[in-house]
Design goal:
Layout: H1 2-21, E1 34-46, E2 53-66, E3 71-82, E4 90-103, E5 110-126, E6 131-148, E7 153-165, E8 177-190
Antiparallel strand pairs: 1-2, 1-8, 2-3, 3-4, 4-5, 5-6, 6-7, 7-8
Length: 193
């Protein structure tokens, strides 16, 4: 019930946001058919159930297929390392997400966007003797903006996402993690619509 409630709230906010972005989507720039991006990401990760937070650093690769000037299908893969773990313990987070991205291409050099991606998240932990891993549902909801540098290259100065995962807590019970992901990177634009 709790996951359905969070998902319902996120989808409702996303749809309200679309009401403001879609009418602005007048084409004022050439649109690439494909966009390939790479970014550094910082994740402020929650352990769920009040167990504390962690700083997680890593990177993301994304591929977009623009269906039209407003809508793209996005595949996003991320790998992150927990940076404040005790000595001798390593932990990593991986995300594999897909979904729609909605862009406002009204401006010549600036393209704001919003997206909802769903898929798989994987958490691994290791010590000198053991390695353990767990898979979970993963979802992001957020947006950002691309600044076009030239016909084939854009800068993504900031993208901010709510990252939801549902891994087990220390007692083995499923627990919701509400995380914040902030990214910055570059985008290569290939082909035209």
């Amino acid at each position: 019930m709790r996951v359905k409630g969070i998902l319902h709230i996120c989808v409702r906010r996303f749809l309200v946001g679309l009401l403001f972005i879609v009418p602005l989507g007048l084409q004022a720039q050439e649109v690439a058919r494909y966009e390939l991006g790479g970014a550094y990401s910082y994740v402020h990760a929650s352990s769920g159930n009040g167990g504390g937070t962690f700083n997680v650093n890593g990177g993301r690769l994304s591929g977009d297929y623009n269906l039209n000037p407003l809508v793209a299908i996005v595949a996003d893969v991320g790998a992150y390392k927990f940076s404040d773990m005790p000595p001798g313990i390593g932990a990593k987070l991986y995300t594999f997400l897909v979904g729609p991205r909605f862009s406002c291409r009204r401006y010549a050099r600036l393209t704001p966007f919003s997206e909802v991606l769903v898929g798989l998240a994987r958490h691994t932990a290791s010590t000198a003797q053991n390695i353990a891993g767990e898979n979970s549902f993963g979802m992001t909801f957020g947006g950002g903006a691309d600044v076009r540098l030239n016909q084939r290259l854009s800068l993504r100065p900031m993208q901010v996402d709510y990252l939801f995962t549902r891994f087990a807590d220390a007692a083995g019970n499923r627990s919701d993690q509400n995380n914040l992901r902030v990214s910055a990177g570059i985008v290569f634009r290939i082909g035209t619509l």
